[in-house]
C-alpha cells in the first residue's frame, strides 16, 4: 500500500494507524502547497481533490477521506482492536467520534490555516474550538482514551487535530484531561515512529 501524506497534516492519523496495525506500506510525500510529489508528479492525477490523505491499495484501488481510510486500515487487522466490529454499538460510537472530530475540530482548524480568512473570523473560530476542546476534556475524565482503556482510530484523529492547537492559537493548557491524553498518545511507539518519519519529533 501507499499512503500519500503531508507532514503534520490530517494524514498523520492514518500514518499512525498503519503503524499501530503493523501493516506494510510506503509513505509518499505529497505537498499540499505545490500539489506535487517529490518526483514532480502532479498530485491531482492521483487525487483529483488535491488533498491528503490518500491510500492506494495493493490492487491499485484508491481510497480517500481520513475517517474512511482509518476504518479500512483497522478492519484489515481485527485482532489489533483498533476499531470495534461492524454492526456493534461500540463501532457506531467510534464513528460518532470520527464525525465529531472531522466536522467540529478538523474543519474548524481549517479556517485558521486559511491565510485569506479575516482575523475576526479566526478569533470567532478559536473561541468555538476552545469550547469544543473543553467538551472533549470532560469526555476524557477517568479514561485513558476516547473509548476507555483501548486506543482506537478515533484517538489517532483527535491527537492529530489537537496537535494543531498551539500553532493556531487555541489554548488547551487549562484542560488537564486533554493535556494528559496528548502526552499519553504521543508516547506510543507507533506515534513516535510516524512523527519521526514526518520530521515532526
Overview of the structural elements:
A hairpin with a 5-residue loop joins strand 3 (54-56) and strand 4. Strands 2-1-3-4 form a four-stranded mixed beta sheet, with helices on one face. 48% of the residues lie in helices and 7% in strands. By secondary structure, it is α+β, with helices and mostly antiparallel strands. The longest helix has 25 residues, at 89-113. The chain contains seven helices and four strands. It has helices at 12-21, 66-76, 89-113, 119-139, 153-162, 176-186, 189-197; strands spanning 2-5, 26-29, 54-56, 62-64.
* Tertiary shape: globular
**Main sheet strand line-up:** 2-1-3-4
Q: Name the helix and strand elements from N-terminus to C-terminus, one letter apiece.
A: EHEEEHHHHHH
How many DSSP helices?
7
Number of strands: 4
Given the helix and strand composition, which structural class is it?
Answer: alpha+beta
- Ranges with pLDDT <50 over ≥5 residues? none
Could you give a short account of the major beta sheet?
4 strands, mixed
Give the helix level as a range of percent.
Answer: 40-55%
Mean pLDDT: 97
Instruction: Quote the beta fraction.
Output: 5-15%
Instruction: State the separation between the terminal residues, measured CA to CA.
Output: 24 Å
- Rg, rounded, reads 17 Å
